[in-house]
Amino acid sequence: MKILLLCLLLPVFSLGQTIHTKDDKIVYEGKEKMASPAQEIFNSIEKALPKIVDSFHQDELSDHSIKGRGEFRLTTPYHFIRTVSYSIKISATSNGYEYLIDSVIFKEQERGEKPVTKPSKEVLEDMEETGKIVGDTEKILNETDMRFQKLLAILKKEINQG
Fold it and tell me: For the chain, what is the domain count?
């Protein structure tokens, strides 16, 4: 009976992968509506972004848009380091703001060794393999998705508190 239940639930869990992709790359894009004026929203974005994005490096700044790079570390055993680097762009609009997270790159390194860099497209291709690599890749993608979703939720909260 337990095996039957497991077989019935397995497709549900495998469809639970929520990483956002576009053209076989990890991309998060969207719009949030707000009632505040664009300049007020932009001021909140400009103040909040460096505070909530780990290792934030600003690349561009315009009247209503800010673009930069961020980075975060994923959970790994001590002997292994895995970081995710990405580009983030936030633009204030007349009725809210738009966001774009793209150029996602995974950097993996055994302590004492040279790092290996993989673009998100390569990591997503690992999901097409079979065996242990699929489970490992799914864990990586799930944690990455969780971190991006958390970042976007905190950004929205910070902008609302303005």
Answer: 1
